[in-house]
Design goal:
The chain is of the alpha+beta class. It has one domain (about 5-154). About 20% of the residues lie in helices and about 35% in strands. It has three helices and ten strands. The chain has helices at about 35-40, 60-70, 135-154, and strands at about 5-10, 15, 20, 25-30, 35, 50, 80-85, 95-105, 105-115, 135. A five-stranded antiparallel β-sheet has the order 6-7-8-9-10. The chain starts with a strand and ends with a helix.
C-alpha cells in the first residue's frame, strides 16, 4: 500500500519587463510514499500547481475533496480528476495533469495519469511510468477529511 500526505508548496510571483506577471501561489502537493507527485509528473516544470490550497472559492475546493473521496462524480466529462492545474486560473482549457480515481470498499486507486484539456482527448503517453498508487481507504479518507477542515477554516 502507498501512503499519502499533503504538503504546502510555494510558487513565487514574478513581474516581467513587458508588464505581464505570474501570480504568487501557496498550494498543496500530494506526497505519495514520501515522494512529491508534482515532481514525479513534472508539474512544477510545466508551471502547474496542485488543485488545493489556493482557490478563493472554498466550496469549490470542498467539492473537489468529495470528488477525491468518490462521493461525487468527477467534474471533468472524461471521468478523470484534475490533480495539477494552471496556477493563474485553474481552468482545464489551459491544460491539467489528471488521473482516474477508483474507489473500492477497502482501497482508493489513482491510475492512468495524463495531460488533459477540454478541447482534445487526454494524452496518457506522458506519464505511463507513474502509478498506479493504491491507498488504504480509511487512512486516505482521514487525510482528505483533514484537508476539508483546513479548507473550510481558512
Amino acid at each position: 500500500m502507498d501512503t499519502l500526505t499533503l504538503e504546502y508548496r510555494h510558487r513565487p510571483g514574478e513581474l516581467f519587463v513587458d508588464g505581464l506577471s505570474k501570480a504568487e501561489r501557496k498550494h498543496i502537493d500530494f506526497i505519495v510514499s514520501g515522494q512529491s507527485l508534482g515532481q514525479l509528473v513534472s508539474a512544477f516544470m510545466a508551471d502547474r500547481i496542485g488543485i488545493f490550497g489556493w482557490i478563493p472559492d472554498k466550496w469549490h475546493e470542498n467539492d473537489r475533496v468529495d470528488e477525491f473521496l468518490g462521493l461525487i462524480p468527477p467534474e471533468l466529462t472524461t471521468g478523470r480528476t484534475s490533480f495539477y492545474v494552471c496556477p493563474e486560473c485553474g481552468d482545464i482549457g489551459c491544460g491539467a495533469i489528471t488521473a482516474k480515481i477508483e474507489v473500492t470498499e477497502k482501497q482508493v486507486i489513482w491510475k492512468e495519469f495524463g495531460y488533459e484539456t477540454n478541447y482534445s482527448a487526454p494524452d496518457l503517453s506522458r506519464y505511463q511510468e507513474v502509478g498506479p498508487f493504491i491507498f488504504e481507504r480509511t487512512v486516505y479518507a482521514k487525510t482528505f477529511e483533514k484537508l476539508r477542515r483546513l479548507i473550510l477554516e481558512r
